[in-house]
Amino acid sequence: MSNFKKFSLFLVLSLMWTFIAANTPIRQCADTSYPQPLMVQIDECDELPCDLWKGSEAKIDIQFVATRNTMQKLSAEVRLTSLGVTIPYDLEASRGNVCSNLLHGAYCPLDAGEDVTYQLLLPVTTNQPEVPTRLEVRLLDSDNDNQVVSCFLADTRVKKPSSRA
After folding, report:
1. Run of H or E residues at 5
2. Residues whose CB is less than 8 angstroms from the CB of residue 60 and which lie 6 or more positions away in sequence, other chains included
3. Nearest-angstrom CA–CA distance, 116 and 105
4. Distance separating alpha carbons of residues 74 and 4, to the nearest angstrom
5. pLDDT string in tens for the chain (165-residue length)
6. Is pTM beyond 0.70 here?
7. Domains plus CATH for the chain?
8. What is d(CA 135, CA 63) in angstroms, rounded to the nearest whole number?
């Protein structure tokens, strides 16, 4: 095997390992009929719980597969559960619009089986309590009775950024 082929193989394997190792572990939603995303990455978190920093935006990349042809209107729904209480997290329309936040040049309409990545920027307010929080994200097909296209759970904890002097 030539040196170039060895180098290319090493590079490809290294990149694959980087992508595999960088995924955030997720759990299935309570309704197991909801499809899970192919991959989720929360702010470089590769083990739970993921830290969400007050006064910042948590960047969540969600790779999922379209479930039907000509999907034109998809929205994100976020729920947070802390201390046994679940509350919906109101996203600004621009952040919750999946089609306008697709990465890698993807755009709607999507076709069945199409693999795309949505980037959700989730504001973490300064008044959120510093407690363990379960994050649930659902991607909904707004033109099809809000059918769930993808759903996952992740354990997080809200933290105050340390002040550096």
Report:
1. helix 3-21
2. 40, 41, 42, 43, 119, 120, 121, 122, 137
3. 9
4. 44
5. 565 554 444 444 444 444 444 699 999 999 999 999 999 999 989 999 999 999 999 999 999 999 999 999 999 999 999 889 999 999 999 999 999 999 999 999 999 999 999 999 999 988 888 889 999 999 999 999 999 999 999 999 999 887 544
6. yes
7. 3-159 (2.60.40.770)
8. 17
